Amino acid sequence: MNWLNPLGLLALLSIPIIIYIHMLQRKSKKRRVSTLFLLNSEKIEKKAGSRLEKLRNSKLLWLNLLVAVLMTLLLLQLRKVQEQKVLKVVVVVDASASMSAFWEKGSKDLANELTKLAGKTKYIDIKIISSSIDEASIYSGALVGEASAALASFSPSRSGHDLGPALRRASSLLDDKGMLILCSDRPHDLSEDVMQYLIGEAIPNIGFTGFQAQANGKWQAVIKNHGRQAAQVKWAVGIPGNEKLVEQSVSLQAGELRQLRGEFPPTNDKMILSLPEDRFAPDNRLYAARPLSKKMNLEIKGFDDKNELQLLGILNRFDRVSFKDTPANFAIAQLSKLDDLGTQAGFYFLPGPYEWGEENLTAFNSPMIEGLNWQGIPFALAPKSAIPQGFYPLIKSGKNDLLLMRETALGPQFICCFNLNDPAVIKSPAMIVLMYRAIQKAREFHLAYNRKNFESDNEFYDYSLARKKLKVSGVTKPGVGLFRTAEKSGFFSILIEDGEKQKLMMEGGVFYADAAEGDFLMSESRNDIDLEKAEIVTIWQERSFLQSFWILLLILILIYGWYVFDKRQGMIQKAGKR
């Protein structure tokens, strides 16, 4: 027996104070009278003075002392140390989507195994975690019934992922003693310390594994037969509210991939491709929207007529670009000096005189220029100028900066330290691809309506929505300008809220495309849990010593003390009225 709060002993100082208060109460006096009506002339009152009287025995005294003792016990927080023999069990549940094909039955079977383990000892400590480490724990406690309910409510839906981090976390929870169990639908190459409980089986499956669509409405989808035998299956094209506008059949050999092609329904920008229901639901529906990029208005300035015409011909091949006189979203322009540079995204170059640069070019690591070949392009270098803050080099010509870049709130800016008004530079494949990438990047910062399609559980950025009040459906918003699609297929939408008004800014489809999760040829059922290897751990645990009982007793004493005091006061008042 020990206590957590030794300062609680100070509460015992209240005992002498209680005794002192009771000794100040004067003893009542007896007076003999011949008749009761003579008492009316006497004023009956309770008196107390500074003179100490002999301590008298009373119920209130003992009740007050008992309350002081109980308060001391509560403040001390008494703890009783008990020896317990506990079986520690940590279960890692594979959160991959393939588990969903077997989870309804598998979760019950796993709960039955936990029940058997609980029968081996009086106390069991169960921890169940997901193999996806960014998810909260499924269950932690000692009640098998609650653990079973938690397993039943868990929904495995993640794409394929590494189980290693979750298993290392689970191992740290055991302190080298206990049972570590992995529940999955297929075997994994693990150490002997991990007992595998497999709930799968080899089942046939035909599902969608990929999708692409173009702005003109043409699309192509990939379908695969994951089974060991040839199969014929019906697939349908539909729209929200009518999933079977057109239905066709396709024959697939074992393991065959097949491309399906078509066009979006002419009266709808959304489409649903569907297959018959089977045990693995995620790849049976493919939701898609006709792609529509954000419209970008480009400003072209500082080029010769012939070169400008050539540049316009190249840019017109890009999706959704215009050259109107309205405020531009992206510029390709010549500046008289870099001091005129604002925050508008685009390519900016300086006037001559130009000098031919060295052929020795150095390209730095950047997604913008990754895979581009700049060798052989005749660059004429502009005079050196003071570079504004924030720019960093992408390409150097010898020791001279050739191309620099920085990020702004409106998108990427590039300083071309060469003559961009040159047909050889304009027509170079590397420059064309770089301009395309830069305009695509600038779209992420431009606030405009657009439609896109993504795979499930996939992240994408749209910085134009970063500081807006949004209403989202089918996606989450884990960071500034960052969005994550749902784990299940469907449509999504993002709206800007402005008071009572809402404006749709983005929508699209989410489809499942993890082919490995739809392949069940390696799935099997197996139980490696060995009850004989259940290692019982002895632990010493502190428990509160009758804490609830002391509180209940204190409440009862206070109620009874109030009753005694109220009864005594009533008798005094009654005697005073006679």
From TrEMBL:
Q: Does the keyword Cell membrane apply?
A: no
Q: Reply yes or no: does the keyword Disulfide bond apply.
A: no
List each copy of the Aerotolerance regulator N-terminal domain by range.
1-75
Which residue ranges traverse the bilayer?
A: 6-24, 60-78, 545-565
What are the protein's UniProt keywords? Membrane, Transmembrane, Transmembrane helix
Can you say what this protein is called? Aerotolerance regulator N-terminal domain-containing protein
- Organism of origin is Lentisphaera araneosa HTCC2155
